[in-house]
Structure prediction request, 263 residues.
Amino acid sequence: MLVKSFSGELLLAVLRRVTLIVLLLPVAALSAAAPAPPHTFTDQFGRTMLGDIVEVTGPQVKIRRNDGETVMVELAKLVEADAAYVTRWEREHRVFRLRIDASSFHHAVGSNQSRDAGRVIQNMEMGYEIKITNESPVPAAELRFEYNVFVLTRSTVLGGPNSYNMSTTRITSTPGRIRAKGTIDQMGLKQTATVRTSPLAYTATESALSAELQGVWVRVYFEDRVVAEFLSSEKLRGEGWQEIAPAPARGFPLRGFSPGPPS
Prediction:
């Protein structure tokens, strides 16, 4: 199993451990449109057969003929055009059964004393560890994943320079999220790909700045089709899914925040 490295961006936005098993049927299987007409298959001897593909298993394809009988045909015995048709059909109808598990982390990575005010300043990191397990009967390959991590930041604005009178302060909350993507080359049966989200790194004092994880939304794609989806809370749907930009954005909208080092 190979998991390629991924890159992400910070756009503005600890939970309990959550697990979800997702089985998504292909879009074609859910369509209410009329079924496609039977296909005419031709072998290398010029013999033809009218029917529909039932399933593709390795080098063989199961075809249901017009008379209701099913037959197994070797792909190597079909003409090139029909072999290519079977390959396209298999990719469009491939079904994945994936188990997605996510657990959060939020910890201090260091501290020091401010010279002027004597306040404790802590360097913090937080994010999620995402595990994607293949529970399909066959290896899962050529998968792409994306995630949105939702974050809420709270900052305390003091009433004036060096003012510690909390009655003159105000607290502001800013939603934001971290987005990233990557690829999984191949997973065998029961194999797991582990992805640690790009950690959100920030600096906070005991009263000036804090951040809180709000949830994570994961999507797994095969080509351009979503084959599995995970949300730590259905409330996240109201925030909407954001696709990954072709290139990382320059700069970071939240003052005091920066992306952590690659995991």
Residues 80-93 form the longest helix (14 residues). The chain has two domains: 2-25+96-256, 29-93. Residues 2-25+96-256 form one domain. The CA atoms of residues 112 and 175 lie 28 Å apart.
